Amino acid sequence: MKKFLLAFLLFSLCALIVTPSSFAIGGGGFGNFQINSIQGTSLYWSNFISNPNYPPLPPFSCADGGEVILRGTSPSQLDLGTLDSTNCTSSGFFGTFDFSTLPVGQYDLSIEYSSHGSWSGIFYCNGTFCSAPVINPITVTPSMAQVNTPINISASFTDPNTPFGTSYGQPSIHVTSTDWGDGTGSSGTVTETDGSNPGTVTDTHTYTSPGVHTIILYVSVTGGGQALASTTVTVNAPPTVNPITVSTNPVQVNTATTASANFTDSATGTHTATWNWGDGNTTGTVTEPNGSNPGSVSNTHTYTATGVYTVTLIVTNTSNSASGTSTYQYVAVYDSSTSFAGGSSFDNPSSASPNTTGKVKFGISAKYNNSNVLTGSAKMNFKAASLDFASTSFSSLATSNGKAYLKGSGTLNGNSGYTFLATGIDGSVVGGNDLIRFQIINSSNTVIYDSQPGAGDTADPTTVDATGNIRVH
User: Fold this and answer.
1) Which pLDDT does position 195 carry in this prediction?
2) Share of the chain above pLDDT 70, in %
3) Which residues pair with 35 in a beta bridge?
């Protein structure tokens, strides 16, 4: 009975080693190595990787000695000797024990030190030969990682010895796990080997802080062997792009306007910039950071059609490919005929419905064309309240003495069935501040948003356009 309990405990220990993060020892570190192949008395190894969940082990060296211990179901424990220059090289262990004599089962080969812990490799014997899975080098995509941007890893693997083979009527089932080197881990996806083609493992991760991280990938079979491989990835912080400023907004069609933004970057290197003006892309003109002075990008653009446009600036570090982005909503483009144009944001009034605190971004460009058809677009984005509105059609536009009243239909957060009212006062005509009101109503005539709740449709707006202008013609 005592022998049975000892064998059961030792087998349980081997099973725990298959998942390295669950194996605990005292008095030092713990690491794994990959067993590449076993041929009689020769066992070939590689990839000695210290487990990051334990104190780090010194790099593996035969000169450090270490006792080679074999554990399994039978024998339950066997001392294969001490490593030295006669039986150990960086590529393998060459003792006198014939591994092919081991009965069917899972085995752990440990290299144990009295002073600093142990290394462990897992393999399986099928009664004829012994082996373990082997992982090929890991591929990281993209090769230059960026904070808060997912990366993908993949690797192929082979396993010549499948304990759940055809004699059991089902294929082997491998499992994979990844230690990302930032204190987190995950279980990846395995595409099984069919015997003639290698299997593959894939996984994905998003780093939240910059740095150099060691990725450790494990592949194992329950009751079978285990493989592991590692690689390093450098995670870069992107440039920080400050809010974009636009010189003229709204802007008259076929008239140039200037957009600019400052940026900072903790990494060295030169930078490129790209503007997306909402009607096409252009290359930005970059002034590099200099000492405590931030870098900047400034360019002009001429819109040839009326509308409401979102402007996006992307700044990229050419040394590490990390990119930072800033977005401006919205530039309103109008013509000189009867029109109502405005942008870009106001502080949500405390009396608004809802009265969530935050900036409400908007853009309006509406006019009657030469055929007396009402055209243009209106947009409103109140991120703090999760309200993103875009017009799909206009029903009426009235302008008089610097005041405008616009109605139409549109989508809210991508869903149709909403109507809107936008009114504005052009301070350059009436005198005083530019003023704006925005209202959204659903198909049940329920007010979803109103910056001026309770006011009639033709009431003068009272909310100041804090960061843009209103133009009424």
Assistant:
1) 65
2) 91
3) 45
Alpha carbon distance 370, 306 (integer Å)? 13
Cis geometry, peptide bond prior to residue 133 (ω within 30 degrees of 0): no
Q: Please measure the distance between the N-terminal and C-terminal CA atoms of the chain and give it in whole angstroms.
A: 98
Compute mean pLDDT per 10 residues along the chain, 473 residues long, and list them.
35 35 48 94 95 90 95 88 96 95 92 92 89 93 91 93 48 85 94 81 96 94 88 94 92 93 94 96 96 96 90 95 93 81 94 97 91 90 97 90 94 97 95 96 97 93 92 90
* Selection from 238, 224, 232, 209 nearest residue 175 by Cα: 224
DSSP codes joined into one string, 387-401: EEEEEEEEEEEEEET
Tell me the per-residue pLDDT of 227-261, one tens digit each, with 9 for 90 and over. 999 999 999 999 999 999 999 888 888 999 999 99
- CATH architecture of the domain 134-236 equals Sandwich (2.60)
| Residue ranges of the chain that CATH labels 2.60.40.10 | 134-236, 240-472
What amino acid occupies position 225? G
DSSP secondary structure string for all residues of 221-256: ETTS-EEEEEEEEEEEPPPEEPPPEESSSSEETT-E
Q: The dihedral of CA 179, 181, 183, 186: what is its sign?
A: negative
Alpha helices in 229-343 (DSSP H): none
Strands 307-317 and 271-276: antiparallel
CA distance 330 to 325: 16
**Tokens 């909403």 belong to which residue?**
418
List Cα–Cα distances, 398 to 308, 375, 455, in angstroms.
19, 13, 18
Q: Which residues pair with 317 in a beta bridge?
A: 271
If you search the block for the tokens 């419905």, which residue do you land on?
353
**Predicted TM-score (pTM) of this structure:** 0.67
Q: Give CA–CA dist 31/20, Å, rounded.
A: 8
Fold of 2-131: Immunoglobulin-like (2.60.40)
d(CA 434, CA 436): 7
**What is the C-alpha to C-alpha distance for residues 254 and 204, in angstroms, rounded to an integer?**
47
Say which residue the tokens 């491998």 belong to: 174
pLDDT digits (tens, 9 = 90+) for 55-96: 889 999 999 999 999 999 777 899 999 999 999 999 999 999
Task: Out of 2.60.40.10, 3.40.50.300, 2.60.40.350, 3.40.50.11540, select the CATH number for domain 240-472.
Answer: 2.60.40.10
Amino acid at 161: N
Give the angle subtended at the CA of 19 by the CAs of 154 and 217, to the nearest 5°: 20
